[in-house]
Write a structure and sequence with these properties.
- The complex is a heterodimer.
- By secondary structure, chain A is mostly helical.
- Chain A is built from 8 helices and no strands.
- The longest helix of chain A is centred in the first third of the chain and has 18 residues.
- The radius of gyration of chain A is 20 Å and the shape is elongated.
- Chain B has a 9-stranded mixed beta sheet with strand order 6-1-2-3-4-5-7-9-8, sandwiched between helices.
- By secondary structure, chain B is of the alpha+beta class.
- Chain B has a single domain, classed as 3-Layer(aba) Sandwich (Aminopeptidase).
- Chain B has 5 helices and 9 strands; from the N terminus they run E-E-H-H-E-E-E-E-H-E-H-E-E-H.
- Chain B is globular, with a radius of gyration of 17 Å.
- The chains are: A mainly alpha, B alpha+beta.
- At the A-B interface, helix 1 of A face strand 1, helix 1, helix 2, strand 5 and strand 6 of B.
- Chain A: Pfam families: HTH_19.
- Chain A: InterPro entries: Cro/C1-type_HTH (IPR001387), Lambda_DNA-bd_dom_sf (IPR010982).
């Protein structure tokens, strides 16, 4: 199917469309908000969430910040950060992930995967997340092993997903 | 299957500039990845905000009947159908799926074959009820134009049928499609059909 029209033809139609919401078919209906986006299938969601909570905890401490200070820097609620670090059953919303990814300077998509909001497709990433969760203990100060585990995992979080072959 | 690419133009809402875009007559893995990693998170933000604010369902932008698993499964299944998409600035801006096995219901053309638009969705950032201001205008119209052209190519004379989302009803009426009323088999979505005459006017070269 080829459809060739002038730039003016297309732009005139775009203008006519205005703010109209165009959609068709039952599959185009939006999902219910109570139903959360599919969790990280393939990766044990709990493991990923543990890794996510630990990651936030360690990154915060590496920056030498209290929860309150991080909340201020990332423009987030203190209560949100508290449950993220301590309660694995809590799923943060995408805006929170976005702010954290910016604050920690890591890939937003990767952090989404870690938080269980979207699916990670590469096995390597899942393994790294599990390994990270297993290696880091929650203590008052970062010890040498935690620091190196964190450094290694920041590297993984900064990488993009590998392109899949078609 | 080779995907045919047509050069089209969208309107950048913020600047009023013309944006180069591609109309592609196939849906590929890139589109599904965009849906999963970009559309879904963008939509989730709005859905959760609405739920959190305690906005009554009657005031939500449209009917929110699908859960994520169902919707995700349907979208991931698009690869096996005839699809259309619009791509601009490296991102999928709109998706549509075509069914060539259905027949017309409108009295003047009842029983004749038509292109049935099984699914048409525009990226959340191009939808006013999701994001203001929106990014691009013209995505939905481009997908409809492509579906009509496909109907001509198939020898169906531009005949087109679809079940409209509630907030799109006025748009389809405005472009001259016949409103055949709510369809109880499709969660009460209204069924619209485009006749051959309307199709010719819709794809007219003149402007």
């Amino acid at each position: 199917m080829k459809l060739q029209r002038s730039r003016e033809w297309w732009l005139a139609r775009a203008r006519r469309e205005g703010d109209a919401a165009i959609g068709a078919g039952m599959s185009a209906l939006d999902p219910l908000p109570e139903a959360k986006p599919t969790g990280a299938t393939g990766m044990n969601v709990e493991e990923a969430r543990i890794a996510f909570g630990k990651f936030v905890n360690l990154m915060r401490r590496r920056k030498g910040l209290t929860i309150e200070e991080l909340a201020k820097e990332a423009d987030l609620d203190v209560s949100d950060l508290l449950v993220i670090e301590d309660h694995i059953e809590y799923t943060p919303d995408p805006r929170t992930i976005y702010k954290l990814a910016q604050t920690f300077d890591v890939s937003q998509q990767r952090l989404m995967q870690l938080a269980g909001l979207v699916v990670a497709n590469d096995v390597g990433f899942r393994l790294e997340a599990v390994r990270f969760a297993a290696r880091s203990e929650a203590v008052e100060k970062l010890n040498v092993e935690e620091a190196s585990a964190l450094e290694a995992f920041i590297g993984v979080l900064s990488e993009r997903e590998p392109q899949r072959s078609k | 299957m080779t995907v045919e690419v047509s050069r089209i133009y969208l309107l950048d809402v913020a600047t009023g500039a013309s944006i180069d875009a591609e109309l592609r007559d196939g849906i590929e893995q890139e589109q599904l990845d965009d849906w999963r990693t970009k559309w879904q998170p963008a939509l989730a933000v709005v859905l959760q905000e609405l739920a959190g604010r305690g906005v009554p369902i009657s005031q939500w932008p449209q009917s929110w009947h699908w859960n994520w698993d169902q919707k995700s499964a349907r979208v991931q299944g698009l690869l096996s159908y005839r699809g259309l998409c619009v791509v601009a600035q490296g991102e999928t801006q709109g998706l549509a799926q075509i069914d060539l096995t259905k027949s017309c219901q409108e009295s003047r053309q009842a029983g004749r074959p038509l292109v049935y638009l099984d699914y048409l969705e525009v990226a959340p950032w191009n939808r006013r009820e999701i994001q203001r201001p929106t990014r691009f205008r013209g995505v939905g119209t481009a997908l409809l134009s492509a579906a009509v052209q496909l109907s001509l190519d198939e020898g169906f004379k531009g005949r087109l049928g679809l079940h409209s989302l509630p907030q799109a009803d006025d748009f389809y009426r405005g472009m001259g499609m016949t409103d055949l009323g709510p369809d109880s088999n499709y969660q009460g979505l209204r069924y619209f059909e485009m006749t051959a005459d309307h199709a010719r006017a819709f794809l007219d070269e003149e402007d």
